[in-house]
UniProtKB/TrEMBL annotation:
Name this protein carries in UniProt: RHS repeat-associated core domain protein
Pfam families the record matches: DUF6443
Lineage: Bacteria, Pseudomonadati, Bacteroidota, Flavobacteriia, Flavobacteriales
The DUF6443 domain, residue ranges: 46-173
Organism field: Chryseobacterium gleum ATCC 35910
Length: 1253
């Protein structure tokens, strides 16, 4: 745990407090502050400046620490922040803060490393708006423009009109913001919905009118953002603040318009993506291309239909928790359970998911909902631990009751155990200590006040395709930090981990003990980590069993803490295998990995250019972070290669132009690609070149593809290139299942594809030609856990003559095993059609004869590649900014590095055809290539959630997050920008590299503006801070519960949430608090459900649904029958409050003292009085008894640094404090900020100063 020391010096405090109603209390605080400052007088940084010094101890004696000193001017505004000895060389970093003549912070400066340390003393700072307020003592910025600059409108609103980024090259490339009303020329369609109540299904039916009128001029608010490259995004909102149109301007004549259509109850009823909104709508078009939603009377989403999928249904219990869901495949018998049914989740009284699974049922949604609504036994629908009479399924004991719905017909797939461990299987014991640290005890074990109560202690996950389980047990230290685990795999072996973590929670050493089978010899992986004085990783060592310890990596940083140099491999620090240098531009964007023009003995070099390509006539420079040119060279080929990338107005890749700059004819176009798209981002055409055919000097066009669609579903690919390499062609029709998953790909010889209930492909049947021209029947099957983890792959090939050969690959906690049996012809021959054979080295025909079946441990993954058990050596990889494996190397028998594989890629991941330098290596580490993913025998890359087809540049299955990116096809890969964007697991995109991370939030906001309305509040865009759950109506479920609890438009009551105990008032100010009215509703709810579950709807609802972010710090252990006690940490909640340095009045100074004062207390006129209305507070009338806090520290950071007010680049303060649950309450009218309301004045909060990222 971190300890923080706070030192404060206040020279002129009196001006800061203008509110007489709190002056007496504040005087006391000031006296205490003065005393506190005097205690540390000997450590004062200066006697002429206001300052606050904060220290985070990184070890027990605080000899290793982070220290920050913030100086204030005589108006109480921050003027300089000094990070003491923060650079890798132990020098100070100084961030100046300046204001214009009107006191506005219109410039935000970069932190400036210094050439020494002043131990926290203030640095000379030039007043006013100057290029360098603080001297660039080390010359690290070399005369660059080191600040962002905002132009504000000349009005009290002070809205940003322009923002110029950091860097001289961006001087004329401002982001421009416009504020206006719509005009007739905008042609905004006004879609209407007719809504009616269906008494049978008990939901609101929405009927879209297909012929919309247009909004009259002046009816909508119009906000425009023009980025650095001149591309515009225009958003139109109605009078209620709901987004009705997000328009991305592609060019002068074409827009991509996404419409959001609401019914009379302000519920989101339809989302109409660009492809649909540009054409005439009908029922077929709506089903194929639009998003449709239906709600019940409690504003809960109960039915939805995504484009290309069948209808999905949701059922809730009386606590508004999602308890059952069904997609179209589960509603049929064509699923892995071979029965119609539903996925279910069961909860305990604290709203924690205890077990999930499938139950067979032909009942409809409304039938199940009615059953749950009318349950008289266990109306709260909760399960309880039962260690004496467990549920038995296929020999497995489940230590819970089965009193919640459903009670019969269950196939349990996952189980979670909290608070105490379940009865342990034979051979497993809970350790007393791990690496010298005591393991946290369970309740009742000893007298310790802190126990495992509320912690997740064990998780059991069943396999989907068989009945075996993986059982994982977690161990914690006495501070509640994870220090170990034991995972018993489905085969009976285990992986046991141990962590040695220091005072600050940083891992110093880790050990992993692993067996595939219980009878196997144990493998031990030991990793050791060394850090500098600010906990930057310096050295990472790796050891297998008792082998010599390998130095995986040595890191060196520049004075901005950017990785400057990385040394890979070796057993001594002075003799690494490779030395890799990294270079960045002023924006922090990676520009070089080594120098491809001069390798100088290095195995790989890579250079990225954004705005300054060598060939701007082919692809003009981009200032938004898009890469326009890449140079690379590997030592195997020793040829400098280049790609130029051109994009359209939506940032979609249009052209990849290949050249070899040092060649006699540089532009040989050998590996060009050209793409076009429809408005949803579905690829319409793709042209691809390859290395010249034998005897030719001209690049060969191997693909000229035309894609045919029904909605977003690819139904056929027409190949017009007269070339038998590249995409195979065949013009065959592609079919889909009810969930939008591709069922076959006859062009590639894939006869059928089957999926499990997680929409993961678990079986492929192929009929293809082998290297001898013979017809080869083969299959690929997969075994998954119910959480989607891949455990096994089985590849079988059966030639026309000879025996079947089977190769099995096991995936166990990073260890990969292989097994081969049979001896058919050509075990290592590559299937001709499923993947592009010409992209890899030619395989020799192999007649292995009869093979001896044997399981072999092949390799284990490391941070920099792999350790090969079969070769008994470490394998390293050069990876580019996307994580693509470019060069794979290892130490040779002579001790020198040797290249064992190289890869050159087309943009969407296909290896260069006829390059002949790459090894496909199915089942080995060689197969981990594009984005670091494993290439399959089908030619697809396995990302975890979906399989990518690199030759077609799209997925074969629907995007589970498609509602988040509704303007895009659910099958697109990386929003068609694979040069800048990756999809780490097939579920959601992520930007690659520092440049992309900086731009991520803004970029995604331009790609998709979703709008959701629940309970009268509207929120739009990417900026939802709570798990990014896209399902409309989710927060309606939260709001609905609180409506019943508090009643709308009523002053909220501040209560200790107890039943069967006297209700105590915590505070009474302003209007009388309605205790009787509130408790009546509370009592009715608690009698019905047995507990007021604060987190009831805020927990994972199904196996693959991640935990909502804002509940991670939310205690779920306060049943109604318990009175919160501060002595029990499980019943406390940590809240955060962000205050910007631009906050009005004295709020910022108060925050610097750990104080939060409600605005309602600041009123001078006693006749006003603060109110206690939560809804009014959320609506902007914050003259209340409340201050706003959050369970999300990131949300607080957004407010502290201005992000939440669209004013990036502002320093601020985050204060945090633990509160007793029941004295603070979540605001049901402002869930999008994870807002909790705290009554009265708060003192003694922890203070943390934060800088913009």
């Amino acid at each position: 745990m971190k300890n923080e020391h706070l030192k404060t010096r206040i020279l002129h405090p009196d001006f800061l407090f203008l509110t007489p109603c709190i002056s007496i209390k504040m005087k006391k605080i000031l006296l205490l502050s003065g005393l506190f400052s005097a205690v540390f007088l000997q450590a004062q940084k200066t006697t002429t400046e206001n300052y606050i010094s904060s220290t985070d101890c990184l070890n027990e004696d605080c000899s290793k620490k982070t220290e920050t000193v913030q100086y204030f001017d005589f108006l109480g505004r921050p003027r300089q922040v000094v990070s003491v000895k923060a650079t890798p060389l132990g020098k100070d970093i100084v961030t100046p803060v300046v204001y214009d003549d009107l006191g506005r912070q219109t410039r935000t400066y970069l932190a400036v490393p210094q050439s020494s340390t002043s131990n926290g003393a203030v640095y000379p700072q030039t007043p006013g708006m100057v290029p360098f307020p603080v001297a660039d003592a080390t010359g690290i910025y070399s005369g660059e423009k080191t600040y962002t600059e905002k132009n504000l409108e000349n009005s009290p609103l002070e809205r940003v009109l322009q923002q110029k980024p950091i860097g001289n090259d961006w001087n004329g490339k401002a982001v421009v913001l416009g504020y206006d009303l719509n005009t007739a020329a905008d042609h905004v369609k006004n879609y209407q919905v007719t809504v009616s109540w269906d008494p049978t299904e008990k939901l609101y039916k929405n009927e879209l009118q297909y012929t919309p009128a247009e909004y009259a001029a002046g009816k909508l608010v119009k906000n425009t953002v023009t980025d650095e490259d001149g591309h515009k995004v225009v958003e139109f909102k109605d009078a209620t603040g709901q987004t009705v149109l997000s328009r991305k301007v592609i060019d002068a004549v074409k827009n991509a318009d996404t419409y959001y259509v609401y019914n009379d109850y302000k519920q989101l009823a339809y989302v109409i993506p660009p492809l649909a909104s540009a054409a005439a709508l009908n029922s077929s078009a709506v089903d194929n291309t639009c998003y449709q939603y239906k709600y019940d009377s409690k504003n809960r989403l109960v039915e939805k239909k995504l484009p290309g999928k069948g209808w999905e249904y949701m059922v809730y219990d009386r606590q508004n928790r999602l308890v059952a869901s069904q997609d179209a495949v589960l509603g049929s018998t064509q699923n892995n359970f071979a029965a119609k049914g539903w996925m279910f989740s069961k909860y305990d009284e604290f709203g924690r998911v205890v077990y999930t699974g499938f139950f067979a049922s032909t009942a409809s949604r409304i039938d199940i909902q009615t059953t749950i609504n009318t349950m008289s036994v266990n109306p709260g629908n909760n399960e309880k631990r039962n260690n004496t009479t467990p549920i038995i399924q296929n020999g497995e004991s489940i230590y819970y009751t089965k009193n919640a719905f459903p009670t019969e017909g269950m196939t349990i797939l996952s189980v979670n155990y909290y608070d105490t461990y379940p009865p342990l299987p034979s051979g497993i014991t809970t350790p007393v200590s791990i690496m010298g640290k005591p393991v946290l005890k369970q309740p009742g074990q000893g007298t310790a006040s802190v126990t495992t109560k509320s912690l997740l202690l064990a998780s059991y996950i069943r396999n989907v395709e068989d009945n075996a389980w993986t059982k994982t047990y977690n161990y914690y230290d006495e501070k509640g930090r994870t220090i170990g685990s034991y995972a018993q795999n489905h085969l009976g072996g285990y992986t046991r981990t141990e962590l040695d973590i220091d005072f600050a929670g940083v891992t110093r050493q880790s050990k992993a003990y692993h067996k595939r089978l219980a009878s196997d010899p144990e493998k031990v992986i030991t990793q050791t980590f060394t850090y500098d004085h600010q906990n930057r990783l310096l050295v990472h060592k790796h050891q297998v069993d008792t082998n010599p310890e390998e130095i995986l990596v040595q890191n060196e940083y520049n004075e901005l803490s950017q990785l400057k140099n990385k040394k890979l491999g070796g057993t001594t620090l002075s003799q690494p295998l490779q030395n890799i240098n990294y270079t960045y531009n002023i924006r922090g964007w990676l520009t070089k990995i080594n120098d491809p023009s001069h390798l100088n003995g290095k195995l790989f070099g890579y250079e990225m250019r954004y705005f300054n390509p060598v060939n701007p006539n082919i692809a003009p420079g981009r200032f938004t972070g898009n890469v326009t040119e890449i140079d690379w060279k590997n030592a195997s080929e020793d040829v400098l290669k280049r790609y130029n990338y051109a994009y359209d107005g939506l940032g979609r890749l249009q052209d990849a132009v290949y050249s070899e700059p040092n060649a006699t004819v540089p532009f040989n176009n050998n590996y060009n690609e050209h793409l076009t798209y429809d408005l949803n981002g579905n690829i319409k055409t793709l042209k691809r070149n390859a290395f010249p055919a034998s005897g030719s000097t001209t690049s060969a066009q191997v693909d000229d593809l035309i894609y045919n669609y029904t909605g977003n579903r690819l139904t056929k690919v027409t190949e017009n290139a007269l070339n038998d390499t590249g995409y195979e062609g065949g013009n065959n029709t592609i079919s889909y299942d009810l969930n939008g998953n591709m069922k076959d790909m006859l062009d590639k010889g894939i006869q059928s594809i089957q999926y499990n209930h997680l929409n993961l492909s678990n079986s492929y049947s192929m009929q293809q030609t082998n290297g001898l021209g013979q017809l080869l029947n083969s299959t690929v099957s997969y075994l998954y856990r119910a959480d989607g983890t891949k455990l096994r792959k089985t590849y079988s090939s059966a030639p026309p003559r000879g025996s079947t050969t089977t190769r099995i690959t096991d995936y166990l906690d990073g260890f990969q095993y292989s097994y081969t049996e049979g001896g058919g012809i050509c075990l290592e021959c590559r299937t001709e059609s499923a993947y592009e054979q010409q992209a890899y080295k030619s395989a020799s025909l192999v007649f292995p004869g009869t093979l001896t079946p044997e399981w072999k441990l092949d390799f284990v993954a490391t941070a920099e590649g792999f350790y090969s058990f079969t070769e008994n050596r470490y394998i390293y990889q050069y990876r580019d900014h996307l994580g693509n494996a470019r060069v794979t190397f290892a130490k040779s028998s002579t001790g020198a590095p040797e290249i064992i594989d190289t890869n050159n890629y087309y943009p969407f991941g296909l290896n260069h055809i006829s390059g002949a330098f790459s090894t496909s290596g199915f089942g080995s580490f060689y197969s981990y290539k594009y984005n670091g993913k494993e290439l399959q025998e089908t030619g697809m890359y396995d990302y975890g959630a979906r399989m990518l087809m690199p030759d077609l540049g799209r997925w074969g299955a629907m995007d589970a997050m498609s509602e988040k990116y509704s303007a895009w096809s659910p099958y697109n890969y990386a929003v068609n920008n694979p040069v800048m964007v990756i999809d780490p697991d097939g579920n959601d995109i992520s930007y690659s590299g520092e440049a992309a991370q900086q731009a991520f939030r803004a970029y995604v906001a331009t790609m998709s503006t979703s709008s959701e309305t629940s309970g009268g509040s509207s929120f739009t865009g990417f900026g939802r801070a709570f798990g990014e759950d896209p399902k409309p109506g989710f927060w309606g479920r939260v709001s609905n519960w609180w409506d019943r609890l508090f009643g709308r438009n009523k002053g909220a009551d501040i209560l200790t949430l107890t039943r069967g105990a006297e209700v105590s008032r915590v505070v009474e100010v302003g209007e009388p608090i309605r205790i009787a009215e509130f408790f009546s509703a509370l009592e009715a709810t608690s009698v019905a459900v047995g507990a007021v579950t604060l987190g009831a709807v805020l927990t994972p609802v199904m196996m693959k649904d991640p935990e909502y972010n804002w509940t991670r710090d939310l205690p779920l252990t306060v049943p109604v029958t318990t009175t919160a006690d501060e002595s029990e940490p499980g019943e406390m909640i940590t809240l955060y409050r962000g205050v910007s340095s631009k906050a009005k009045g004295s709020m910022y100074f108060e925050a610097s003292q750990g104080i939060a004062i409600p605005n309602g207390y600041r009123q001078v006129a006693a006749t006003w009085g603060p109110h206690s209305d939560m809804e009014a507070h959320a609506g902007g009338d914050n003259l209340s008894i409340w201050t706003s806090w959050s369970t999300s520290k990131e949300s607080a950071r957004d407010f502290a640094t201005g992000v939440a007010m669209y004013e990036n680049g502002i320093p601020g303060i985050i204060i945090s404090k633990q509160f007793k649950v029941g004295t603070v309450l979540p605001n049901p009218y402002n869930p999008q900020e994870a807002e909790w309301l705290v009554p009265g004045v708060v003192y003694g909060a922890k203070v943390e100063y934060v800088l913009p990222r």
